[in-house]
Design a protein that fits this description.
Elements lengths: L1 H31 L8 E5 L1 H4 L3 H5 L4 E5 L5 H6 L2 H4 L5 E5 L2 H5 L4 H18 L4 E5 L18 H18 L2 E3 L2 H4 L19 H16 L1
Parallel strand pairs: 1-2, 1-3, 3-4, 4-5
Helix pairs in contact: 7-8
Length: 215
Amino acid sequence: MKIRLCLLFLLAVMPFYANADKYWDQRVSLFDHLPVTENDIIFLGNSITDGGNFEELFKREDVKNRGIRSDIIPGVQKRLEQVVKGHPKKIFLLIGINDVSHGLSVDKLTERYETLVNEIRHRSPDTQLYLQSLMPINNDFGVYKNLKGKESTIVEFNKRIQEIAERNGLKYIDLWPFLADKNGKLDNKYTNDGLHLTGPGYRAWTNGIRSYLDE
């Protein structure tokens, strides 16, 4: 019975992961035809970044979106050449929540993240790199079961990201003041699923970090 249930589960989730892989390939293929230059400001990350129309939100043509839905830290590392070969002016990195959902320990998350940061700095040393904290989540929506009970992991991982920034002389941006409610959850007015942002959420995020684009 257990084997049968496992097989049924795999059959159910396989189309999702296949579609995620296809979408990743589609976006990477598109980015191959959209070169990055040394004057560009890059937003690099997963679906939260993918969903933002930053050029219009910031009213700037030098801002480019390099987010891919469902991406993880190794996925960003795999496609990093598309970004760093252009030696962009700035990179705003937001990655790791999907890695958290996969059940990785804080130590493993930190190892992956620091490896990515070191590679960006090595391959594009003149780029200003901004490490954004993972955003708060809101499990009251009950949508993302793999994130249930992961709030403390997110908080601890953010502390590690801040430490990585401090060790490397990089800017750390805490996004919680812009997006969290009084209980430390992603505010209901900024999300409709407890993880991703609605329009007001993107406005709150981009307004919160706007000054970093001009410094």
